[in-house]
Design goal:
Blueprint (H helix, E strand, L loop, with lengths): L17 H4 L2 E7 L2 E7 L4 E9 L6 E14 L2 E9 L10 E9 L3 E5 L5 E8 L12 E4 L3 E4 L11 E10 L13 H12 L9 H6 L1 H8 L7 E12 L2 H17 L3 H6 L15
Antiparallel strand pairs: 1-2, 1-8, 2-3, 3-4, 4-5, 5-6, 6-7, 7-8, 9-11, 10-11, 11-12
């Protein structure tokens, strides 16, 4: 049976233990499928299977599993507590792997049937670090449009919207796409086609999210999972529109700073024509 590489401390320096080295986010590639594995310090794990299209850009989830793990001598044991991917992780089964090689960003395991499986680390995580939130969010610049009219006598109404793009889990090595310049143009065309009754309250605004996602996804490599609308105003007052754009443009420039994040409130309310928050 193959053994794990053990590290001896010398000259008072502490070396990383094998148990610490297995922690983190790992991925295994099989054809167009990626098996993702998160090994947590408290001896729990989660796994999911993701399928990519021919361009390796669009990710679809095929299921998840979770359980407990234990490192004993030269073996890594995974016990499955729950699973919707029985062909990969069978519920209530304990998988025993011989550890053939263990490095900072790579481990080679041998299954009970003798098959060797290589796992590569997708993100460095040191012992004691909090679990990573794999969800990615990209802020969009604020948008203000003149709503469509159903009659020539209707007053001009302006829709102001601040939103973020929530991305689905990316493939290992896949870069976060930039917001294409035409994405904002497409959003403006779509939002300006709406009439007042489409956005007169926040519930109706939320109904437009799935349609807006369909409009934007072609410009974002299809990785948008959802759209988080942070604030909406519908107003007949152009000054209110200008104030909204100034406020949220400055806010976008400050985004990411601790002071801004502490103060930022994710308002999910809409203002009526008299600027009453709904």
């Amino acid at each position: 049976m193959a053994g794990i590489f053990f590290f001896m401390a010398g000259c008072g320096d502490r070396k990383t233990s094998d148990k610490e080295m297995v922690l983190g986010n790992w991925a295994q590639h099989r054809n167009r499928a990626y098996i993702l594995l998160i090994i947590n310090p408290k001896e729990t794990w989660q796994s999911s299977v993701r399928i990519a299209d021919a361009t390796s850009k669009i990710v679809a989830s095929k299921g998840d599993a979770e359980g407990t793990w234990h490192l004993q001598d030269s073996q890594l044991l995974f016990t499955v507590m729950a699973s919707t991917i029985e062909n990969v992780w069978a519920k209530n089964h304990t998988y025993v792997f011989d550890v053939l090689e263990l490095e900072d960003h790579r481990m080679l395991l041998q299954e009970e049937n003798g098959r060797k499986v290589e796992w590569k680390k997708t993100g460095a995580r040191k012992p004691g670090d909090k679990d990573e939130n794999t969800a990615l969010v990209i802020p969009m610049a604020p948008i203000a449009v003149n709503l469509n009219k159903i009659s020539s006598g209707a007053p001009d109404r302006y829709l102001c919207i601040s939103m973020e793009l929530g991305l689905r889990e990316l493939m290992p090595g896949q870069k976060i796409p930039r917001v294409h310049p035409r994405a904002k143009e497409a959003a403006i065309v779509f939002l300006s086609s709406l009439i007042h009754s489409d956005v007169e309250d926040f519930d109706k605004v939320r109904d437009q999210q799935s349609r807006l996602k369909e409009v934007l996804n072609p410009y974002m490599d299809g990785v948008i999972e959802d759209i988080n609308i942070k604030r909406v105003i519908v107003s007949t007052d152009m000054e209110k529109v200008e104030e909204f754009l100034i406020e949220h443009t400055i806010g976008a420039e400050k985004q990411g700073s601790p002071e801004h994040n502490d103060k930022e409130k994710q308002d999910q309310d809409a203002a009526s024509d008299d600027d009453r928050q709904t």
